[in-house]
């Protein structure tokens, strides 16, 4: 997880620094310093932050081309009922 992903996921969930720190069991200062890219987090902190976001419904995504992001985590067993962008038309654009 990158600091930018951490900031984005926290914003997506509308969590304060205190809330994220509490959910992850990480010191608030460690989260603040990580997000600001001022110092690396303590060992295990990134995994704890990622696990807190996963429990909150957000997962981190990364691509081989170096681009990263976040997305809403689909519930286990949930069927994808969306329409692919290439299948959109005037009849199903709603």
Automatic annotation (TrEMBL):
Q: Where is this region: Disordered?
A: 61-94
Q: Which InterPro entries match?
A: Cro/C1-type_HTH, Lambda_DNA-bd_dom_sf
Q: Which residues form the HTH cro/C1-type domain?
A: 5-60
The domain of life for this entry's organism is: Bacteria
Question: Coiled-coil segments, which residues?
Answer: none
SUPFAM superfamilies from the entry? lambda repressor-like DNA-binding domains
Put simply, this protein is called Helix-turn-helix protein
């Amino acid at each position: 997880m990158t600091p930018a992903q951490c900031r984005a996921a926290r914003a997506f969930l509308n969590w304060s620094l205190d809330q994220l720190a509490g959910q992850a069991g990480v010191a608030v200062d460690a989260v603040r310093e990580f997000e600001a890219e001022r110092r690396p987090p303590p060992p295990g902190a990134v995994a704890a932050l990622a696990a807190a976001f996963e429990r909150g419904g957000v997962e981190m995504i990364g691509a081989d081309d170096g681009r990263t992001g976040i997305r809403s985590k689909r519930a286990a067993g949930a069927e994808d009922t969306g329409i692919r962008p290439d299948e959109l038309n005037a009849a199903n654009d709603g």
